[in-house]
Amino acid sequence: MEVKDFRALRVSLASPDEIRSWSYGEVTKPETINYRRLRPEKDGLFCEAIFGPTKDWQCACGKYKQVRYKGIVCEKCGVLVTRSSVRRERMGHIELAAPVAHIWYTRRVPSYLGLLLDISRRNLDRVLYFAQYIIVRIDEQARARALKRLDDEIARAEKRLEEERQTKVDAIRGLSDESIAMLRTEEQTLIKEIEEEQNKQIEAVMKEAQGIQSQIEAQMGQTITQPIIFQAAGETVASKGESLSANHLHALSTFVESRLNEIKAESEDELTRKRSQIEGRVQSLRYQADQEIETQTTGDTQELGDLIERIQDQRQELLGLQSMQFLNEAQFRELEDRWGPAFEASMGAEALYEICKDLDMDKMAKELRTQIRSTRSKQLKKKAIKRLRVVESLRKSNNRPEWMILTVLPVIPPDLRPMVQLDGGRFATSDLNDLYRRVINRNNRLKRLLDLGAPDVIVRNEKRMLQEAVDSLIDNSRRGKAVSSRGRRQLKSLSDMLKGKQGRFRRNLLGKRVDYSGRSVIVTGPDLELHQCGLPKTMALELFRPFVIQKLVEYNYANNVKGAKRIVEQRRPEVWEVLEEVIQTRPILLNRAPTLHRLGIQAFEPMLVEGSALQLHPLVCSAFNADFDGDQMAVHVPLSQKAVKEARELMLSSRNLLLPSNGEPVVAPTKDMVLGVFYLTMMDDVPHKGDGKVFTDLDEVELAYSLGKVHIHAKIRVLHYTSRSKSTVPIETTVGRALFNQILPEKLRFVNEVLDKGALKNLVGRCYDNLGMDITADTANKLKSIGFKYATRSGITISVSDITVPPAKRDILERVTQQVSKTEQQYRRGLITDDERYLKTVQLWTDATDEVTEAVRQSIDPQSPIKTMADSGATKGGFQPIRQLAGMRGLMADPSGRIIPLPIRSNFREGLTALEYFISTHGARKGLADTALRTADAGYLTRRLVDVSQDVIINAHDCDTNTGITVGEDQGVVLGESFRDRAVGRVTLDDVFDPQTGEVLLERDDLIDKNAFDDIEKAGVKELRLRTPLHCDLEQGICALCYGSDMGQGGLVKIGAAVGIVAAQSIGEPGTQLTLRTFHTGGVATEDIIQGLPRVEELFEARKPKGHALLSELSGVVSLDEAKG
After folding, report:
1. Which residues does residue 716 pair with via DSSP β-bridges, in sequence order?
2. Tell me, what's the pLDDT at 369?
3. Quick one: 858 and 983 in the same domain?
4. What is the model's pTM?
5. Taking a C-beta distance cutoff of 8 angstroms, is the pair 340, 139 a contact?
6. Do 954 and 1094 fall within a single domain?
7. In the chain, which end has fewer C-beta atoms inside a 10 angstrom radius, N or C?
8. Which of 617, 38, 695, 116 is nearest to 403 (CA)?
9. Which of left, alpha, beta for 1110 (phi over 0: left; psi -120 to 50: alpha)?
């Protein structure tokens, strides 16, 4: 299979059957090779029967040893007779004793398996690694049976309790009736006793009455001497001395009757009292019985209620059991005891495999769509959309979700995980063999434990270990604790072999090493043209060897290629002649890593130089971000005619003069060149030799200067500064400016001002706009030459004596120290908070630093070299380094970015104290750390930006849209861009009219260049409607008119331009500069990296920003009331 056979590469799920179809046999043993025979072990990881023979056309046992036996399978050793190269293609497999989850679909973010099943990643991990159970399925029939059993139990309990209650009630009633019967018997006895007593008393009364009656009758008419007393009633019947008569008999009968009535009444009262007592006791007994019955009934009712409640809870518990419910160990044990047959719960990938197997993708997709349409919760909707995306992907690709759980593990061919013998007899092996060995060992052990019927705990632990072993094999870096070798080196898993900079794709497939390339240190080549570079002879000979050999044969220096090779190796003189000729027609490509944007690789015409270093033109350094402190660059040779043509026409450095990101010149002079031009164009008030002289033209000025008649800064007047000039009024200038203008194209003359770095950049830009690419390249080269020449001639240098500390510094520091002391005093008195004190102190010292800086600026000699260097823009950081040298270093930031309120009062001229030195180390160290750590982040940001924007290509000239944006002068500066910056380079959406005359300045779909905008500005147009990529109507990519100008070349962008990648590089390239920025400030307390690159990432990823802008310290509602009339 050749590379050209592949059109694309896709990673997708494989079914167990498909994995088995790839395989040529099952690997059952963890052994690799037999260390005695040095031959692969049978059924092991290098088995010849599975993966093919180790020697061409020869089986393992040696029975078949020729190509004529091709295709025969040896009946003895089972090896197919074929080429040994099949060991790079043939795969094996391992039949797993328990299903294992694929770590790509479980542990990554988002977890596809978790999303599909709507399980959090934490719960998914707990199930997979045997920390909790998940209910796999519910047996509805068993659940219905269990529910019926619960209902029957309630009915049985009700019946039993009713029967028990009735028995107890009957017993209580029986006891009560017995007691009452006894009381009734007692009552009858008492009645009898009372009646007997009454009869006794009546009998005694009657007996006494009869005795008295007999006495009265016997003594009737007689006077008695003794009174007759009726003792029973306590009444006197007849008094002493009375004569007895019938009246006395009548009185007696009255007393007897009265006494008898009394006795009867007393008996009646006694009987009533006794009866009421007995009745009370009867009632008490009846009440007691009722109470006992009631208590019994209440208890039974309570017992029944508790039972029903308990059964209802169990019922709810049973009904609450659902598929995908999580249970801990205790819950599972309890539920299993209670509802064993009604549900099935298990742990590990096995459980998830069972769940996934039962999923209906079509039904799930339907349900999710309904949920998305009906739900009002944004959170639920977002989650449902994510889940639907996974479900739809599985449906469209005809993949089943259970394939995310492995039951068969593929084993990659042995030659892709080789094992080689070292000199000492030991073996070096691929990490994959160790990882596969762990899987096979654990798998075999699990099979054995299952066969033995080992306890559940042991089996579960073994399954977890198998899951971990397969996780390590697939992606060792994603696991919690990565598997390491003896030397504590993390083993490289299958994923590690594919991903990242050292992976298969970026290192071996995209990052192949190429022939006809070289690498060397770069040095400056100030004598080169812009499109040239210096290539060491020895290097050039190696790079262009085939072409040199061809020419040597062609010119008959050698008869054949072999002879020509010999001549080249001997380095004869004719070789160099031929080499000189070869390089005339062939450009080379120079590249400096990191290649952050298009200008990181440019083409040059090579010039042969002595030595071993590449010579680079100083003006292309900024494009490569190169300097000459030991940087290295790579050289590549374009071989084909098309490649050479492309290099010459598109990649030549003289054709890449503008930055693709913003259209600014990239070849503008810097450093010494700027200093030389600044020195050349300076004008001062000091008298110089030749002041006031008048010259006819610039050549005359040059002649006078070369003869030493005038000083370079002498104020002179020149009449003609171009060959076509007919001026009669001379212009006032200096000798230096006249010399400078002499190198400029006539259309750009006369530049009569001091040129610093910015002005020079603008001059190059103006030259490009007005005169084109070729003249600009030539002019830039001349600027370089004159800059270097006069930087050298100026003799500008700095010494310690140039750095003067301003006298005002002491007074400023004393004053601010007192103010800081007052602030401290206010804090100690409790008038201000600690935060206020801190902010006030920082503010005071910041102001002090600014004052000292201003004092340095005032006190520095205007003619001093250090001032010249700072003003020209030749130095990095402008005036900041001078402030640190002559003023004060000021406030520093600690590693967290917080400003230390103790400033460094000294400067480098005076020297720092030990404490100040240590305070300053914070920032310097953080600067170095950020340089190392965050450069990688910027590179990664560029990769992500390219990934999202690579499809944005100019696919058409016009999309005929009628929408765009309105850009106006009244919008002010938007995101640091003025009206001019926002309009130039875009295309108009409508005709642009002159507000005064109504004349059409620009028609619809015209490109606004700098000149066109000047006309618009002159006419006083305040607002423009412009086309923008945001409103482009093309389905694929964007159109040229919506995009506008190609910043890197000028003019409308061409169809086919990869503008998305240009945009990504335009953001990524300064991103790296952003990371390195802290290093240049040396950690001085300013806006640090925390606001830099992470802020850019925050914006692109649309994250919620951490820092909030405070609008008001008071909360409330603001209302605007407008007065009417």
Report:
1. 733
2. 95
3. no
4. 0.72
5. no
6. yes
7. C
8. 116
9. beta
